[in-house]
Amino acid sequence: MAAIEFDGVAKRFGSVRALEDLSLSVEAGEVFGFLGPNGAGKSTTIDILLDYVRPTAGSVRVFGADAQRETRAVHERVGVLPDAYHTYDHLTARQHLAFAVEARDADERPLALLDRVGLAYEADRPVEGFSKGMTQRLVLAMALVGEPDLLVLDEPTTGLDPNGAREMRAVIRAERDRGATVFFSSHILEQVEAVCDRVGILSGGELVAVDSIEELREAVGAGTTLTATVDRVPTDLDRVRALEGVFAVSADGTTLTVSCTERAKKPALDALEAAGASIEGFETEETPLEELFAAYTGEA
Ligand SMILES: Nc1ncnc2c1ncn2[C@@H]1O[C@H](COP(=O)(O)OP(=O)(O)OP(=O)(O)O)[C@@H](O)[C@H]1O
């Protein structure tokens, strides 16, 4: 069953078209990254999914339940790290978790949850003086309470230091491993690539692509630079150049550089060997994610 199904969802705020005809299915057990530049409509999509905002058109189902008409049933299965959150200054991190555990009728230990987000050492401090990143960790821990079937995380790594971002990725993987679906928005491409099975790219309120990052690279012909060290450069490189997905081949000493699609990498290496070269080593360099993103969103 699909964990989330958006069907023809549109949202207007006055004259602003925040979302246009969004149809998208996120499978149960999938880690799905929702990418897009500022103002693309990511938070609006999440707000509609959680019924914080009503769509102008279309509907959303979460594990088959209608997000607008069966909001309570949806919320019972979802853990949320929202765009904006509120914490209680005078309560400690542990007390926040204890409340969340009670509200969800769960039985986790607050300290164990704080440990998962690297905040156990601050468990008994009032959250008043927490930094943005610490608060973000706390709210994530609260989202994990009760082992929700779906985690919805709005920009989860914004405001986190590199350790925090790494821990966030570990939490996302662990949640996936226990069978949860994770839907998260981000404009930090590396974060998305590191953990996502598929991504959706939103631009100006429209979904412009949905696929794995690997397939998205293929689709725009954004490829790979393959650098191979050979014992001798074959006299006939045309058979490599003629391969589908190979754009250019050049030689410098015993180093060969091949620009190609991801998929053409192996055939290119095979063709080099077939042409008589013995490959002593090779490296590949992917097209930077920024370029890939720009290809889909038209952003420089
Ligand atoms: N309450 C609102 N009233 C008016 N316009 C809004 C409202 N909420 C969002 N918008 C507009 O809808 C569009 C999409 O905004 P949204 O916050 O969904 O984008 P986003 O992709 O989450 O952006 P960011 O990465 O900057 O958070 C923007 O043009 C925004 O100005």
Automatic annotation (TrEMBL):
ABC transporter domain residues: 4-229
GO molecular function: ATP binding; ATP hydrolysis activity
Annotated coiled-coil segments of the chain: none
InterPro entries found in the cross-reference section: AAA+_ATPase, ABC_transporter-like_ATP-bd, P-loop_NTPase
EC number: 3.6.3.19
Keyword field: ATP-binding, Hydrolase, Nucleotide-binding, Transport
Family, similarity comment: Belongs to the ABC transporter superfamily.
Protein name: Trehalose/maltose import ATP-binding protein MalK
Gene designation: malK_1
